[in-house]
Amino acid sequence: MSSEGFVVEGPGRSSLVAVFEDDGETGFLYVYDCAADKVTTHLHVYDRSPSLVVNEDDVFVTWTSDFSRCGVVIWGEMMGVIDVRTDKRWVTRAVSNGMPGLEGDALEGFERE
After folding, report:
1. How many other C-beta atoms are found inside a 10 Å radius of the C-beta of residue 13?
2. What is the rounded CA–CA span in Å between residue 40 and residue 44?
3. Residue 57, SS3 per DSSP
4. Alpha-carbon span 36 to 79, nearest angstrom
5. pLDDT of residue 112
6. In angstroms, rounded to a whole number, what is the distance separating the alpha carbons of residues 82 and 41?
7. Among 19, 23, 30, 29, residue whose Cα is nearest residue 1
8. What is the pLDDT of residues 98-113, one digit of tens each?
9. What φ, ψ does residue 63 adopt, rounded to 5°?
10. Strand blocks (E) in the chain
11. How distant, in Å, are the alpha carbons of 48, 61, 66, 113 from that of 44?
């Protein structure tokens, strides 16, 4: 399955940027180091399918207040988190709208609305 993709960014501290990319087939969260001009880590969040359609307006990229973790919120639920200090990663593979997101330790440091 292929369709037009999109990119959503969330600037972090110093040279780090959290980037969510949907290339029309898959969705990945990346941490990009602008100073080094490279991706430092990534997390596979979903594969598109006829039952999984994610639009740019469904996605929000965020950081914890101390910029130690970045995360991707899809349909109002945290679906993936990367700890940039430890490289620990959490993911709930998005398969449909309405599914629950991450809970517990993965959300530590993120502000909930």
Report:
1. 10
2. 14
3. helix
4. 27
5. 67
6. 8
7. 23
8. 788 999 999 999 986 5
9. -130, 155
10. 6-11, 16-22, 26-33, 38-47, 59-63, 69-74, 77-83, 89-91
11. 12, 14, 24, 25
| Amino acid in position 33 | D
Place of tokens 């979903």: 46
- Distance between CA atoms of residues 23 and 76, nearest Å: 21
Within 13 Å and on the Cβ side, how many CA atoms surround 12?
A: 25
CA 61 – CA 63 distance, rounded (Å): 7
Place of tokens 């945290």: 78
Q: What is the DSSP code (8-state) at residue 5?
A: -
Instruction: Note the pLDDT of residue 11.
Output: 86
Residue 42, token pair as written in the block: 């990534």
Residues 6+ apart with CB under 8 A from 1: 24, 25, 48, 49, 50
What the block records as the tokens of 43 is 């997390």
pLDDT number for residue 3: 63
pLDDT tens, 22-66?
Answer: 999 999 999 999 999 999 999 999 998 888 889 999 999 999 999
